[in-house]
Please model this.
Amino acid sequence: MSRLKPLRREGIFSRDSVPGSGGLLAVWGSPGSGKTAAAVKIAVCLAKRDRQVILLLCGSAAPELPCLCPAPEEPRSLGSILAAAHVTRNLLRNHLVSSPLETLRLLGMRRGENARSYPPGGAAQAGELLDCLRAEADCVVCDCAASLAEDALSLRALLEADRVLRLSPGGAKAASFFASQLPLLREEGRQHGRHWLVSVGPGSRGKGDFSLAFPPELEGQRASGSLLSPLTARSSRAFLRTVEAICREVFP
Model:
């Protein structure tokens, strides 16, 4: 196998350094901010633009993959990839899960699994996985876990991402969350102050680079595990326009 292109090392959160039309987008935010719903809809929007997209679902506390796609017959789990001695593109391809959209594939933990279902993967495996994902798809959308101290892959994704969306519902609790988690990024000596801020929820307009209000139809999809389905209600149009605007800016 040819050597994969190296990870970006400098200016990874600078908009001036965002390369071309592809790369890795990390979606991160405080608990309950709608990270997964936003990441899924962004991935779907990109896939409908004929991009080859992989949606990486990092969370292990409540795995999202079985909520989005029926469980595959054979074991295909993010955990088994991170437990490998080395991550290769062949290993990755054997674990990607197809979606109803031809150009969108998914990777995450399976139903019934948790952070202790596999030997813990380290920073090396996380870096190799991210490198393979970049080489395998035009766009990689990473749904990061909220707590970075407990998820090496989410932390590495935020450090190595070409683009970062930070979702915040505002208020004292969200401020306390970011005050707790951002020092973990600073410890790595990386620039992290120029990613896009997405204000979510009622009263979010004008408080970030984007304002995102989740419509009732989307809340119903989250409850039923049908986030990959299209939004068709009139009340969802403003949300869809914002998702499209995000995609145009972060993946021009």
Remarks:
- The first helix runs from residue 35 to 48.
